[in-house]
Fold these 3 entries.
Entry 1:
Amino acid sequence: QVQLVESGGGLVQTGGSVRLSCALSGRTFSNYAVAWFRQAPGKEREFVAYISRSGGSTFHADSVKGRFTLSRDNAKNTVYLQINNLKPEDTAVYYCAARPQEATPFTLTVVDFGSWGQGTQVTVSS
């Protein structure tokens, strides 16, 4: 059974940066593609970014392109989401999710990922 644990959230000022981590255990890390989603209060969970099993392919939501960078360290079983130039609208609970199959731009929804972490809160103050 795959277990995912996010960390790195907190309170950040507008324009600041934060790096979120997602540690995967229970299965071979390199066999899983990983995505990040976020859910703001009163809104549905939305896709943010995705990285393939090898790290060679990434997808980002249009709203975060240029500010969010995804990377993975297969030796540390961890995926990182670097967020720069934070905006108040980035305030949300950020979740990482994993699936054993590679995803495509058409399979980046909540239902396409079977394993989820508990989430980490990012709050951006104006």
Note: The mean pLDDT is 95.
Entry 2:
Amino acid sequence: VQLVESGGGLVQAGGSLRLSCAASGRTFVGYTMAWFRQAAGKEREFVAGVIWSGDRSYYDDSVKGRFTISRDNAKNTVMVYLQMNSLKPEDTAVYYCAAGVISRWSAAMSQENYDYWGQGTQVTVSS
């Protein structure tokens, strides 16, 4: 099983980035896909998640209205995207894609409930 993130980089405050995650190696039917991030010296935190069907998503309060998560299940490789607008310096972190079978949204925010993780992609927002 592989989750491979891409799309990170350096951007000025107020700018946008689109992260992508390619998930392959098994069926992800029924899996919630999520993005977490970890800033230097801080714990990994939940950013956004989307259920299998793609018609329900959840965001941390810090990114609501600025970030949008989406997924494409059409092919053998499931694609998950995180569109990040109005970026702030505090959004600087390594962003990780994760997959897990989540029974309720309160569990979706806990990283221990995810079975598969990508290697991460760095996002740096300059002021």
Note: The radius of gyration is 13 Å.
Entry 3:
Amino acid sequence: QSQLVESGGGLVQPGGSLKLACLATQVELAYYAIGWFRQAPGKERERISCLSRDDLHGYLEDSVKGRFTVSRDTAKNTAYLQMNNVKPEDTAVYYCAVKFTLWPCKNIQAPDYEYWGQGTQVTVSS
């Protein structure tokens, strides 16, 4: 059983909103840094956001800054990626990942994350 289960993907029109969820089933999310990644067809996986364990340090890639936010609900053991004003170029498979660390997340690279979600497809199209 996967430690991270993603949901919330789907088809959305340009300018619309979508909220992705990442439910942690076997780890306590409060102790982990969270990363969000995406991979578009024919492109490499890219990190778009992260949130440090303390929720005080985070990162947003320039292309999503001002449109996406990342958060967590420790009571539900779930992380979220709120996507607003989506664009066709946001079309991709989105992945969440977590790493057990006290350090700020900005310098954590993809290979360092310990657990990954299965991915959820987001398609932005009219």
Note: The mean pLDDT is 95.
